């Protein structure tokens, strides 16, 4: 199986509650490598563009307000089957439905403050990575 990249955000609730280390430990424990990472406080335009596919959803405005409410950790992850693997360890979007041991089951406060975001497919991963990182900022297996 080929190496794959996915995009991760530790959301404002995760950063605010000092959970960066615990979330990254789960990511690395699952065999995924952090190949780029930085803290950022998203602008409204950055959050609206990033979540553009949800623009028509009733929760869009609340989602953008929430994602711009404090700093987040943006990261690119790399590994075998990284997109599905990260979704597996994140758990379901709604923490009430998240499997035991997953990041959201352990840490999420609500469907909105659900601690992490991960890409849902190859096209979204490519778009989301390029929304925040240049190729020269990503240190994957090709550069190590
Ligand atoms: P995320 O994976 O970042 O993608 C979109 C986000 O919208 C999702 O996680 C949730 O945090 C948030 N959200 C808020 N309300 C809902 C909802 N009713 N259904 C799906 N996602 C929601």
Short description:
The chain has helices at 12-16, 20-29, 44-50, 60-67, 82-90, 103-107, 122-132; strands at 3-10, 33-40, 72-80, 116-118. It is of the alpha+beta class and 144 residues long.
Secondary structure: elements and pairs:
Layout: E1 3-10, H1 12-16, H2 20-29, E2 33-40, H3 44-50, H4 60-67, E3 72-80, H5 82-90, H6 103-107, E4 116-118, H7 122-132
Antiparallel strand pairs: 1-3, 1-4, 2-3
Bound molecules: adenosine-3',5'-cyclic-monophosphate (CMP).
Question: How would you describe this structure to a colleague?
Answer:
The chain is an alpha+beta fold. Helix content is 38%, strand content 19%. The chain has seven helices and four strands, in the order βααβααβααβα. It has helices spanning 12-16, 20-29, 44-50, 60-67, 82-90, 103-107, 122-132; strands at 3-10, 33-40, 72-80, 116-118. A four-stranded antiparallel β-sheet has the order 2-3-1-4, with helices on both faces. It starts with a strand and ends in a 12-residue tail after the last helix. The model has no long low-confidence stretch (mean pLDDT 98). The structure holds adenosine-3',5'-cyclic-monophosphate. Adenosine-3',5'-cyclic-monophosphate (CMP) is lined by residues 54, 59, 63, 93, 111-112, 114, 117.
